[in-house]
Amino acid sequence: MGFSPSILIVVALAECWLLLAVPVFAQPSLTERVVRPIGREDGSLVVYPGVSQSHLRFVVAMLARSVRVPIGFEEVAQEPEEPVGDLAKVPIAQRTPLIGLTIARALDALVAADPRYSWREYDDVLVIRPVGAWRDPTHFLHETLGPIELKAKRGIVIVRELYDQKGLPMKWSTGGVLGEPPQGGRDLNVPISVTLPSANMLDVLNGVTKSHGQLSWLIEYSRGYAEFRYSCVLLVTFEGKFGGIGPAACSGY
User: Fold this and answer.
1) Beta-strand relationship, 71-74 and 231-237
2) Domain that holds residue 181
3) DSSP label of 182
4) Long-range contacts of range 49-56, CB-CB < 8 Å, 24 or more positions apart?
5) 189-214: per-residue pLDDT in tens?
6) Is 20 within a domain?
7) How do 231-237 and 241-246 pair as beta strands?
8) CA nearest neighbour of 127 among 175, 69, 79, 174
9) Is 122 part of a structural domain of the chain?
């Protein structure tokens, strides 16, 4: 026995409705991802008024590990600060725990604790920088480099070439593992490629992190000047493997 055309139309419409009714679960955007526990470093995922830059660098690396998104951090150039003290001495009422917050709210808490900083999503990387640096057209990270085509090179080698272009010889390097990271993850030294039709130095750093896929960048200064000759760049994987390079001595982690 056959089916009439009207019955076939009803069946087809019903099937379409069922397809439309199936929910589609999209990956949360970068800023909507939630900070989750990561192990023994959970206690460090707090910020507080007067937080040191060394603690901020550590928090940034731990946030990237927790939410699995690339983060860039440029510190405020200043004279060397005292080593961070015991976090246990910070009153609980002054601490803002970051676990359970979206990464956007966590970064809001970070810049509230130190209002010298602001953050934004920049080319699919969450970037925290000094407020004035974002507005400074003469900042070395905004310097135009022209077309970039770098093939099958380690990220730290790409950074070194940026210094080489300015005739700045390397005087400092560091490497190691941060905290007690989980096993696995992508190696820091995996060859990557960065191709950009037009770029500044900030674009190149972001391109390195995105090409690697599990990497963040941090800039530290050896002296109280935000200049390329006093800068050191650290690359940190989500699992805490890091390497750094610069023309002046920096503290690293």
Assistant:
1) unpaired
2) 30-246
3) P
4) 49/94, 49/113, 50/113, 51/113, 51/114, 52/81, 52/82, 52/84, 53/78, 53/81, 54/81, 54/83, 54/84, 54/251, 54/253, 55/84, 55/87, 56/110, 56/114, 56/117
5) 999 999 999 899 999 999 999 999 99
6) no
7) antiparallel
8) 69
9) yes
Q: What are the Cα distances from residue 246, in Å, to 97, 176, 195, 203?
A: 33, 16, 23, 18
Which residue from 23, 5, 216, 1 is spatially nearest to 124, judged by alpha carbons? Answer: 216
The DSSP 8-state label assigned to residue 248 in this structure reads S
pLDDT in tens, 55-99: 899 999 999 999 999 999 999 998 666 555 567 778 888 899 999
Q: DSSP letter for 239, please.
A: T
Q: Give the separation between CA 34 and CA 140, rounded to whole angstroms.
A: 33
pLDDT reported for residue 5: 46
Q: How many domains does the chain have?
A: 1
Paired strand residues for 155: none
The answer to whether 247 touches 172, Cβ cutoff 8 Å, is: yes
Contact 103, 29 (CB under 8 A): no
Predicted TM-score of the model (pTM) = 0.85
Q: Hey, how many other C-beta atoms are within 10 angstroms of the C-beta on 108?
A: 15
Residue 156 has what DSSP assignment?
H
In a domain, 206, yes or no: yes
> Is residue 12 included in any domain, yes or no?
no
